[in-house]
Every structure is written in structure tokens, then in C-alpha cells.
């Protein structure tokens, strides 16, 4: 999968690998890559769900940049996604015809910019104060403020939704999936660059011990703001993709209980994936997209076990329980998340010999340092 | 003067009745304050935001409902017995949360603890959703139980609803009780000591684990009482997540307004925000620009208040300097 490929280049101090090593890794990655590229092409529903997974990956990485690197948490990320979707749909204004490819691109950029600016403004207020006030501010922003904005008749097509038809070149579900996958890969790259850059190192230092980092000249507010803005922009881009995925912006997906559920799902993805671990977050995003109420996976499983009706009536609650149980077991028993569990494999893909022991402990357990204070 | 009439000049000659939003605001404010008390308590003792507080309340409301109405095989108990069982259920869920989620993570980063409470909230919403009880029902309010329905008095033709009085009385009683508890009892002072410096508290012989369990138990109790008072007509509901998705969010903003560390602050903040919301909704003519915002005035007002408090006075109205 794309995650594995990225992990190899993510490790600091890249070494020159023997060509044999590279060849075995490539050989192992090939079937995964083929699966990711081939399976969604076989069936429109698969393509649809796979695109949903790609959107979840983008939001998951956005949460990863925020929570994994800055040690803050957002409980209103659905608002950034929704704001992106709203912006994209209203900028492109397709009406009943396919979007103009140029305007589609402009819409994506605007979606990203709108949410980035929103994050910057919110962060400027909340990150000044020590503690986890960002969680509160984003919560109120997501569930209260965004509700008021998203339901404005001029922005949500007078409650009927704003249509957002894809450009002709991306009309099929599979092609749109490839487009979303490309953007998800882009987010993965940005995430990796953030982690490896001066800002990323500064953020990790802040997360570990704010006072020490400050003493070394790391500006707390500035670095956290940069992190949160990148996170918001990424979520906005995911929202733009989501608008054209469902081919409309409807405020109902991002407000009230549906929106709140979405916000919590994003938290679950970031935590279960392993805070600060890209590969884990990508896998968690795929898992939660596949088990989400929009995916037919659990429904067909339930049908096979004659629980079809029960599941059909309680989809949202079932996905809540799955998410919550995985979240709680992760924070209590397995703080590194999926990223830590999969570390032997990701290390192997990075060119190290396969070993269940982790000689350098891994970055994902760094959350345990306790430098994050409230 | 009970009625203010704005007429002439504006194209909308509106008749503003200030009593209705006043009563609404106080009643809603009491709800925010009730949930806010538990939030402030846990912020004081553990230093975390407890996002599961709304579901502690919901569990209590559901348990009260199923025993009060005798759902399924359950006995049909008198309301106050059912309510007692409901509050006990709230306390139990809070204690279990403390034992299984909070205590194993005592020394971990605060953000992880907050994520833990989010997980508990999510789990409780899911489990409640899967339980077979009528989710659109409401609890009978205290007024019905006591036979003073639907209102206790009328001021200027405007009825003061019995359930609102019950909320306000309960909020005042609980706020004073909590204040006395923290001020004058050994356990209350011990909770404060642990919150200020857990190592030092341990040195003088306070069991940090016991204190944590006690504060979560009290939070469950406060949440349970709140739930039973909130799930009543006209707006109350037993839908899973209803308290978390709406009331709790405003309760957090209210607690920040009052000062996260101040118990009377939860009361003041709750009332303040309830009133701001009610008046923002009462008529958009108060702020001309808001006319174009359909139904969103109250929401916008809550958000603006939170942002302003954080910008201007992060410790809130009554909070201490951190």
C-alpha cells in the first residue's frame, strides 16, 4: 500500500540500500499496490468506498499533523472538512452540468484555503492559552458555529444541497478514486515533509517539553499555529474531494449528530492508527472507511449471519461501538496504536532486517513522554 | 416595565417581550450549569475536560425511564425510586470509567486522558443506541410527579414552567453543596490538594487513587441528577448522544465563561450563556446584521462568547489565575 512505500522514505538518515534489499521490498509491495489499484476498478460500489477511504486517509493525516506532532486535539474536524466541501461546491457551482476542469481545480484550492484560514484564526485564539483549549474551541466551532454557517440557505442551496458534478475526465467512480488517491498520497508527502522539517522537529520538541523547547528558541504559538493551519488546510482539501465524491454538498452530513459522529471518527482514526505514525493512520483510515455505515462490508457480513435487519437499523451505533472499543483499547493498552503494532513490517520495508524487536523504540511512543500538559 | 415596544422607523415593527427569553434563558442556563458543575469538578481534580459527562447524564435518564415506566420485564417503580436508581447508575458508570480508563493512564499526557473520555462518550452512545428502549420518549418532570403541572406561577401572563423551577432549585442546591464540600470538608480539601500537587498530596498521606475515584463518583452523581432534570418535556429526549451533541457543548462554553476552575463559575457561566442564547434568539432585531442568519443567532452567540472569553479573560469570570 501507499503507506508502506512512504514509510521507507520517512525514516531519517536514509541509507543507500543494497539492490537486493530494494528488490525484495518492491516485490512484496507490488501485490498490495496492485490490490489497491485493481479492486476499486472492478465495481462502482468498491470505487465509491475506496474513494471514501482515500478521503478518510487525508483527514486522518490532517489529525495526525495536529495531534501527533503538536499534541493538541481537535473535536471539530468535521467542520473543516465541511467548510472545504461547502467552499468547493459553492465556488465551482456546477448546477446540473459537469464541472469545468479548471474551476474544479480552483474549487479544490479554495476549499483547502478556506479551512486553512479558519484553522489559523481559531488557533490564534485557542493556542495562546496553555492547555487543551483547542479541543473546546474546535468542539464549539464544529458543533455550534459551523451548524449556523452550513445551514445558511444561500450556502446550502436552500436546504436542498449544492450539486457538485465531477468534471467529465473524472466522472467514473474509479477515475475519481485515482484522483483522490493521488491527493491522499500528496497529503502523505506533506505530512512526511512537515515531520522532517525544522517546523516538525520544533513541534516534536514542544510536544516533549515546552519549557525546554522554548529555551532553545522554539516559538510555541508560531509552530503550533503552523501545524494547525496545515492540518486545517488538509481537512479542507479532503472536504473538497468529499463534495465531488458525493456529487453534492449537503449540510446534513456535517451538522448535528452526523457531524459530531464524524468528528469523533476522525479522532478515533488518528488515535487507533497511532499518534504520530503515518502508516498506522493510513491503515486505520482504510479500516474505518470499510466498516463505516456507507460501506456495504458490515451489512453483507450481517446479512450472512442473519443480523441484516438489526445491523441496518443500528448502523451508526455499531460503528460507534467499534470505534470506541478500538480507541479505548489503544489508549489504555497499546498507546503506539497500529503504527507500533506494524513497526516490524514498516522497518522491514525501510530496508532493515525483519525483527520483532524494535531497537530504537520508535517515535510513536513519544506521546508517553508526558510533555503535553493541560 | 415588562414589555418593550419598538415601533416606527424600522420596517419590522416588532413587539419584544423580554420576559419569555428571560425565563427561557434561566431555564436553559440551569441545564448548562448542571452539566457544567461536573465538568468543573473534574477539571479541578484531574485537570481534564470530561467529554463523557453528557452520557453519564443520559445513562441516568434512561435507567430512570425504564424503571419508572416498567419497560419490558422491569418492575414499575415509583418515580423517585427510579430516579434514585438512575443516579446510582450514573455514579456507577463514572466509577467504572475512572477505574478502567482514567486510573491506568494516570501518569500519561493529558491529551490522552481527554481522548479516553471521548472514547467513553462514544462507547456509551453506541451501547445506549443498541439497547432496546423507546428512544423518543421523555421523562415525566418533577411537576407532574408532584401534581403541580404545568406551571407553578404566572408572571404577567407568562407561565413559569415547573420543570424550569426544578432545574434552577436543583442547580442552586448542588452548587452550594459542592462549594461547601470543597471549602469545609476534609475530602473536598483533599481533592483540591491532589489537583494542585499530587506528589505533595501523597506525601502528606492522601490516597490519590481514592480521591480520583471520589471525584469521578461525584461527577457521575452531578451528571445523573442533570440527566433526570434535562430529559423532560418539552425539549428533553432520551436519544443517545443528545446531551453530548447539544447541551454538553454549550455547557463547556458556559464553564469556560464562568472559569473552568470555579464551581460558582459554572453556575454563573451557565446562567449567563443561557440568557445570551435566549436573547440572541428572541429577536434578531437586537443586532441588525444577524437578520440574515436563519436560526443561527444563538449558536453564533455561544461561539462569539467563547472566543471573546478566551481572548480577553482566559480564566473566565470567576476562575483563578493558573
Walk me through this protein's architecture:
The complex is a heterodimer of chains A (374) and B (322). Chain A has 374 residues and is mainly α. Chain A has one domain: ABC transporter involved in vitamin B12 uptake, BtuC (Orthogonal Bundle), CATH 1.10.3470. Helix content of chain A is 70%, strand content 1%. Chain A contains 16 helices and two strands. In chain A, α11 packs across α14 and α13 crosses α14. The two termini of chain A are 37 Å apart. The N terminus and C terminus of chain A are likely disordered. Chain B is mainly α and 322 residues long. Chain B has a single domain, classed as ABC transporter involved in vitamin B12 uptake, BtuC. Helices cover 66% and strands 5% of the residues of chain B. In chain B, strands 1-2 form a two-stranded antiparallel sheet. Chain B has a two-stranded antiparallel sheet with strand order 3-4. In chain B, a hairpin with a 2-residue loop joins β3 and β4. In chain B, α1 packs parallel to α6 and α11 crosses α12. The N terminus of chain B is likely disordered. Chains A and B meet through α6, α11 and α14 of A and α4, α10 and α12 of B.
Q: Tell me the Rg of chain B in angstroms.
A: 20 Å
CATH class of chain B: Mainly Alpha
Helix count of chain B, per DSSP? 12
| Fraction of residues in β-strands of chain A | under 5%
What's the rounded overall pLDDT mean of chain A? 84
Number of domains of chain B: 1
Per DSSP, what share of the residues of chain B sits in E-state strands of 2 or more residues?
Answer: under 5%
Low-confidence stretches of chain B: 1-15, 290-294
* Count of separate structural domains of chain A: 1
Level-1 CATH class name of chain A: Mainly Alpha
The SS-based structural class of chain B is mainly alpha
Run of helices and strands of chain B: EEHHHHHEEHHHHHHH
Strand order in space, largest sheet of chain A: 1-2
- Oligomeric assembly: heterodimer
* CATH topology type of chain B: ABC transporter involved in vitamin B12 uptake, BtuC
Largest two-chain interface: A-B, 59 and 55 residues
Query: Could you describe the largest sheet of chain B, including whether it forms a barrel?
Result: 2 strands, antiparallel
Span between termini of chain A: 37 Å
Mean pLDDT across every amino acid position of chain B: 82
Please name the CATH architecture of chain B. Answer: Orthogonal Bundle
